[in-house]
Amino acid sequence: MIYAKTKPFPADFLWGASTSAYQVEGAWNEDGKGPSVIDMATFPDNISDFKVTSDHYHHVKQDVALFKELGLKTYRFSISWSRLFPDGDGDINPQGVAFYNQLIDEICDAGIEPLVTLYHFDLPYALQQKGGWSDRKTVDAFERYARTAFELYGDRVKYWLTINEQNMMILKGDVIGTLDPNTENPQKALYQQNHHMMLAQAKAMILCHALLPQAKIGPAPNISCIYAASSKPEDNIAAHNYSSIRNWLYLDLACHGRYNALVWSFLEEKSLLPEIVAGDMEILRQGKPDFIAFNYYASTTVAADVPNNHAGEKQDPRAVEDQQLAGVYKNVYLGVDNPHLEHNEFGWYIDPVGFRLTCREIYERYALPLIITENGLGAFDKLTDDKKVYDDKRINYLRIHIEQLKLAISDGVELFGYCPWSAIDLVSTHQGISKRYGFIYVNRDEHDLKDMARYRKKSFFWYQRVIASNGEDLNGHIEY
Ligand code: BG6
Predict the structure, then answer these.
(1) What is the mean pLDDT of the chain?
(2) What residues are in contact with ligand 1 under a 6 Å CB criterion?
(3) Over the stretch 426-447, which tens digit does the pLDDT of each residue have?
(4) N or C terminus of the chain with fewer C-beta within 10 Å?
(5) Which ligand 1 atom is at minimum distance from the Cα of 324?
(6) Which tens digit of pLDDT belongs to each residue from 129-149?
(7) d(Cα 105, Cα 99) in Å, to the nearest integer?
(8) Mutate which of 394, 428, 434 to test ligand 1's pocket (most atoms within 8 Å of Cβ)?
(9) In angstroms, what is the span from residue 375 Cα to ligand 1's centroid?
(10) Residue located nearest, by CA, to atom 5 of ligand 1
(11) Distance, CA of 412 to CA of 361 (rounded, Å)
(12) What letter does residue 194 receive in the DSSP assignment?
C-alpha cells in the first residue's frame, strides 16, 4: 500500500536504545557477582571474552549522561541474574542490588524511562551445573528472581521484558544458546528447555501483574518475516513451516497459552515433544503479556527441502553458522539466498520492507501494542585520529528501517517504541567487540583495553535529531 500521507509517530513514542548486562557491564567477578554461563564459556583467540566488555559497571554516570544527551526517552538494559543471586537461587548479593538501584536512579534522574529485561542469555552458572533450563527447578529459581526484581525496582520500573530471544536460544543453541554440547539428543533437550522457559515467563507475567498493577510486561523474541523462495506452493509450505517454528510457536504460547498446532505436529513427528505436567497449561494460559517486544535484524527466505532436490546446491552457504540464517531442517525447510536483498559486512540481509511486514504480521495475529527492542547494524567502525567515527552506513540502515516503521504505523500497527541495538558499543554475542553497533564508540580492541574512552559517533548526532523531531527528520546529512 502506498499512502499519499503517512501518519506521524505518536507524541509519547518511546525512542530508545538497548544493551544487555553481560555484553556491556564487565566487572564479571566484582562486588559479589557469581559467574554466568557466559563467564565460563570459551571463545576463539581472536575475539574478546565478556570479562570487561565496555566496563559500563564503572562508567554508569558517564554513560547515562551520554544517553541523556542523546535524548533517549527509554533505555533498555538487562539485569544480570548472577549479580543479584550469585548462585542463581541462594543468598542475595547486596552489592548487586545496590548497583541496579544506582543505575535505575541515574536513568530516572535523567528523565529516561527504564525498560528492564530480566534474562538476556546469561544464566547463572550454578544453575547450569544443576541442569539449567532442562531442570524444572530453574523455573522456580527464575520466579524467585523475578519476584525479587519486581519488589526491589518496581517502584521505578514500569516496563519489563521477560526473556530475550528465547527462540534463538532454542533454534540456534550452538551459536548463542546455553545447551551443554555433549547433551544426548540436543533437539529434544532444547524443546524441553523451551517449555520450562515458557513456564518461567508465564509465572513472571502473573507475578508482575499481581505485585505491580501499574507495570507492563512482555516477551522479547527475535521475530522476522519469512519469504518463500518462489511462488511454488511447496516453497510456501516451507516458509509457513519455518515461520511457525521460528516465530509463532513462541508468541502463541506467550499470548494465547497454547502450542501452535503445526509446530506441535512437527515436534510429534520428530519425537521432540516436551514433557508437560498437570497444571502447566493452566499457568501458560494465565500468564498474559501487556505488549509484545521483538528484535528484528533481517528477514529469511526458505525453499522446500524435499527428497532429492539437491538441497546442498541451493542452500545459502552461510546458513549453517549464524543466528540470522535459517539453515536447513530435512524435509521441513531449507534456508536459501535472497537475491533481492543486500548484506551487511557480516552477511546479514538488510531488509527494511521486511521490518514493516513483520510488524504487520505480529500485530494482526496478536493485536497487542508492539515495541522494537533491537534493530541495528553491526560494522567494523574505525576511530579517526581526531576521534570521530563516520558511521554513515549505520545511519542509513536505521533511517530506512525507521521509514518503514512509519509506514507500519500508517498501516494501523500500534507501535509505542523503538530501541536500536545498541546504545553504546559492546561485545557481540559471538563476533567480538570489532562488530560494533553503538551510537557511542568505546575505545578498546579485542584484547587491548586501551583507555575505554567514550566518543560520540556521527550516528549519535543523527539519532539525537531523529528523537528531537519525533521521527520526522530522518535526513542523513548532518554536521559532524
Ligand atoms: C540479538 C541479541 O541476537 O542480536 C543481542 O539479543 C545481540 O544480544 C544482537 O548482540 C546482535 O547479534 P550479534 O551476534 O551481532 O551480537
Answers:
(1) 94
(2) 20, 23, 164-165, 168, 222, 295, 323, 374, 378, 421, 428-431, 435
(3) 999 989 999 999 999 999 999 9
(4) N
(5) 3
(6) 999 999 999 999 999 999 999
(7) 10
(8) 428
(9) 9
(10) 429
(11) 12
(12) H
**Rounded distance between C-alpha atoms, residue 72 and residue 76, angstroms:** 10
CA distance 49 to 38: 9
Give the three-class secondary structure for 196.
helix
Model confidence band, residue 355 (pLDDT cutoffs 50, 70, 90): very high
3-state secondary structure string across 72-134? CCEEEEECCHHHHCCCCCCCCCHHHHHHHHHHHHHHHHCCCEEEEEEECCCCEHHHHHCCHHH
Provide the 10 A C-beta neighbour count for residue 343. Answer: 13
217: Cβ contacts below 8 Å, ≥ 6 apart: 159, 160, 161, 162, 204, 205, 208, 209, 289, 290
For residue 366, the CA-to-ligand 1 centroid distance in Å is 25
- 176 alpha carbon – ligand 1 mean position (Å): 9
DSSP state string for 280-314:
HHHHHHH---SSEEEE-S--EEEE---TTS-HHHH
Ligand 1, atom 7, residue with closest C-alpha: 429
DSSP string of 136-160, one letter each residue: THHHHHHHHHHHHHHHHHTTT--EE
Q: Which residues are catalytic?
A: 165, 374
160 vs 145: CA distance, rounded Å: 13
42, exposed or middle or buried, with CB in 10 Å at 0-12, 13-18, 19+? exposed
Pairing of strands 159-164, 216-220: parallel
Cα of 144 vs centre of ligand 1, distance in Å, is: 27
How far, in Å, CA of 187 to CA of 166, rounded?
14
Residue 173 pLDDT grade (very low, low, confident, very high; cuts 50, 70, 90) = confident
pLDDT in the model for residue 314: 52
pLDDT of 327 = 81
The pTM of this model reads 0.96
Sign of CA dihedral 68, 71, 73, 74: negative
The pLDDT > 70 percentage for the chain reads 95
Dist CA 83 CA 205 (whole Å):
22
